[in-house]
Amino acid sequence: MTPPRVFISYSHDSAEHKSWVLDFSSTLRYRGIDAVLDQWDLRPGDDLPHFMETELARCDYVIIVCSETYVAKANAGEGGVGYEKMIVTSSLLKRIDSNKIIPVVRQSSAPVLPTFLQSKIYINFSNDSEVEYSLDELLRALLNAPLYEKPDIGSSPFKPLHGSKPDRTADGLKAAMTAISKAFEGSPYNKLGVGTISQFTDIHRLTLERYLSQAESERLVHSDVIGQYSVTNDGYEYLVNHGVINE
After folding, report:
1. Which residues contact 116 (CB under 8 A, 6 or more apart)?
2. What's the whole-model pTM score?
3. What distances in angstroms separate CA 78 from CA 84, 85, 114, 115, 214, one per listed residue?
4. Class assignment of domain 5-142?
5. Strand pairing of 221-223 and 229-231?
6. Is there a contact between 68 and 14 (Cβ–Cβ < 8 Å)?
7. 161-241 maps to which CATH number?
8. Cα separation of 192 and 16, whole Å?
9. pLDDT digits (tens, 9 = 90+) for 122-177
10. CA–CA gap between residue 154 and residue 164 (Å, rounded)
């Protein structure tokens, strides 16, 4: 798979904001994205408008980091951000159904998008404590790896309701339960910790813990006081009904 090329558009609000954008872009590259950033790809003497226009046309996606300053400049049509706005707006007019542009919100108050992006679904990176969840959502969009996959249409319209649950192969809860099943398959213990379970899935550990909490709330698993998990009877039925294990 060719890494998707992604142009990062942002405003130079402050040294702190530039540093955040640099770290954000570096993380994307570490995780399989060909991120393009002016801090790497522009040198003194380069033509800024030409760089913007070329990369916006060349890239598979454009990530627009919407800080308060970016929103204000884009709406006013100021500076480099204003120039990008003209190009992006033109592109949107030609391809109305395009999802090439992904707004990323980095703000200290209620999220606000530039006028020309207000119809877009954004990803909020304002809360640093939830950055892994936001990053997971963004990477899935860039790598075309959705968390939920639309199930195939069944062959019989008269299948009993009880047995017609959708089999969402990329469902996070199912992925977590599958990891537990694999972990217990080769283990002599009847309780396992998150560290052991995480060895049987590619899900980030923080995301895995989130889905294990969901599984516990649905009584599919039970955790003890030290955070070790066991599968309940309902969890066993879930694994059987979803084709993870054979009865």
Report:
1. 74, 85, 88, 89, 92
2. 0.60
3. 10, 9, 13, 14, 46
4. alpha beta
5. antiparallel
6. no
7. 1.10.10.10
8. 42
9. 999 999 999 999 999 999 999 998 888 888 887 766 555 555 555 444 478 888 99
10. 9
